[in-house]
Amino acid sequence: MATINFYLDKPDKKGFAPIHLRINCNGNQVKVSTGQKIEPKKFDKSKQKAIGLTTESHEINHYLDFLRERADELLHHSNKKTFIQDEVKSLLNEHIENYKENSNVNIVKEQVSLYGKPFTFVDLFAGAGGFSEGFLQAEHNNKFFDFVVANDINENCELTHVVRYNHQLGLDAEFLKQDITEPDFLDNLLEKINGRKIDVVCGGPPCQSFSLAGKRKKFDKKDDLFSHYLEVIKVLQPKYFVMENVKGILTKEKGKIKELIIKEINSIVDTKEIPLLISFIKKIRKESNSFLFDSIIKRVELEKLLEKDKESGKADFINFVENRFRKLTPKIADYKTSKTDENINTIRHGFNLLARAKEWEKLKRDIIKEKDFCNIDSDNFANAFTDFLTEISSENVISKIENAFKILKVPNTYKKDCDDIITALKIYTTSFDESIEILKSHCNKSQTKELETILESIRLYKIEKPFVANASNYGVPQNRERVLFIGCRKDQKFISEIPATVSEEEKVTIFEALYDLDFIGNNQEAHRYELVDISSQYNGTAKKMAKLLKKRKIDGKPISKGGKSFAEWSRKGRLIERFKPQTKPFYVRNTEALENGEKYFDILNNHKTSNQNETVIERLGVILKNGDYKKAQPELEKLGLSTNKRNYNVLKPDEQSSTIMTIADDYIHYNSPRSLTVREMARLQSFDDSFVFQGKRSTGGNNRKTEVPQYTLVGNAVPPLLARAVASEILKNIK
């Protein structure tokens, strides 16, 4: 085991001593100059730290901690087990030079000494901003998150973001309102990021976007959002990324989707390590099958290309395979056949289609957009659209080329060449992982072992399996199960789960979350809090209800002294001190109203009930009395109050709610026959009261496809306290 420490060399004429890094291992010593100097009286030799609270001391200690971490990683956590002294020196000097080159002294001085250590994050598919809110609540050992960019496609998401983060909190966080599948999305995102390194990316591509390649039947706008999300990861290469989705993703298509997601994440590579893999492939390359090995090399080289260069790289791959076919054509067909045969033409024209993939993808995107705009689905038009979109897919083109080869009467001598062309085209459409599997099939045992070692260093992210998180385990008064895929960059500590902040017995109840808002009736709106007297409101059960109220820490953990109730935390706000609101919360109807300064400053926002008629109120009263919709149905039928509505969720004050969705009328308040307000649903999601949901309160019919009103913003959000737990765990581990 190596020991790592720092020591001072002789002081120079000005009295400053150079700081050196020293490593002792098995009687050998390695010494490296850090390039940093300090007055000996300002250095504590036993603690290996600069003394004092000055900016300079903070900066030096931050730098020395960085070097110690890098040396420890190299000696104790590297795939390579033995190093010669010069290797250690060389590798550490690379870190030292890189640090000097990339560190901004002014930023280090300001952030480390005065404000702590900020880590940047980007929120994709942001919606209302549940992830963003939770990340801004997290802090650990003076480390916190700095919000850079959020993205979504809807105007009301943008409006809610701009009001909350730019106006109310005074942050400079950007918002990109654009579909992630648009060709210039990445360019626009990078422009918003403006050269900053991104430490964490979070977001949840809608579950409809997960499909097995070549198995899609519907072709809607949500197709393939996952792969575009991963493209962002590949470009930004954050230290961690968090992908959230519904629990059903684990069993979708018999678990194959989950496996696909893991495989795709494992296919993200460290481009700096690509040359090592290419050298290996060239070393084991067999002359008898050189074309196939060259195809694998070309596929691997695609991983190195920036997004803007990928199209030309793909075209180059197809041209390489097509040239092979051109040379083969005279050997498998005479001149006349090569010019007129339908199968030869299918192969030849198939190459043309594959080489123009970019143009076909654009056409496909435009057709899907128009199809969606015209509501083409479950009608006599849908199949024709699906058939055409299937026809132009790369997988289908390759399948037709393969079939054409089979029909051709190819001499046995050249059948293997034809098979290699098909394999090369399939390599073109595979993930990095799948192309490596093809490579493995051509390796012997010792080569496979060597390849596995290379793959360990080339995979940029570590992930074993997804983690199922129930929001109620993190202080949220709601049993909302979500799947989290947490990708950990190989130079970061591995995170496999998010520890619960409350036990089963400590979970926050619905009553704790909503009792202080229970002063509103049917078709009413409140703009200020009113006193709720539990004794008079609950008569014989007042003591039982009062016992449900607990003092808690910010994360929901009960605490005997100090602390606040869940409702008090909601009113006070859970954001860390540096993100406290700069202005009072306010509401605006739309973007135009914001620009015109038409703001509504209220003490309480989003607390309005629906206008339900007498029949509905009577129906809700019967269901509430029975405590369950199913149990109430005989009585509803008897009273002529039956409805075709599939379900009602009756809230139980001493339990947690079921998953909060986007339609308020699905829920019945535990104390009165009415649906919930936006603010009550936001409380069950763990949003602070200062978070105001903007724009329209609700919508219906076809408008649900395009509009994201307040109820939808709330129902689709990640609960901030769940996001806070994720962010806190990342801060504990991030380097």
From TrEMBL:
Stretches assigned to the Arm DNA-binding domain: 9-74
Family the entry assigns: Belongs to the class I-like SAM-binding methyltransferase superfamily. C5-methyltransferase family.
UniProt keyword annotation of 4Fe-4S present: no
Catalytic activity annotation: a 2'-deoxycytidine in DNA + S-adenosyl-L-methionine = a 5-methyl-2'-deoxycytidine in DNA + S-adenosyl-L-homocysteine + H(+)
A Pfam family this chain is assigned to: DNA_methylase
Active-site residues per Swiss-Prot or TrEMBL entry: C207
GO biological process: DNA restriction-modification system; methylation; negative regulation of gene expression via chromosomal CpG island methylation
EC assignment: 2.1.1.37
Descriptive protein name: DNA (cytosine-5-)-methyltransferase
Stored PANTHER family: CYTOSINE-SPECIFIC METHYLTRANSFERASE (PTHR10629), DNA (CYTOSINE-5)-METHYLTRANSFERASE 1 (PTHR10629:SF52)
Species whose genome carries this gene: Croceibacter atlanticus (strain ATCC BAA-628 / JCM 21780 / CIP 108009 / IAM 15332 / KCTC 12090 / HTCC2559)
Keyword tags: Methyltransferase, Restriction system, S-adenosyl-L-methionine, Transferase
InterPro entries reported for this sequence: Arm-DNA-bind_5 (IPR035386), C5-Methyltransferase (IPR050390), C5_DNA_meth_AS (IPR018117), C5_MeTfrase (IPR001525), C5_meth_CS (IPR031303), SAM-dependent_MTases_sf (IPR029063)
Keyword check for Transmembrane helix: no
Record PROSITE patterns: C5_MTASE_1, C5_MTASE_2, SAM_MT_C5
One GO MF term: DNA (cytosine-5-)-methyltransferase activity
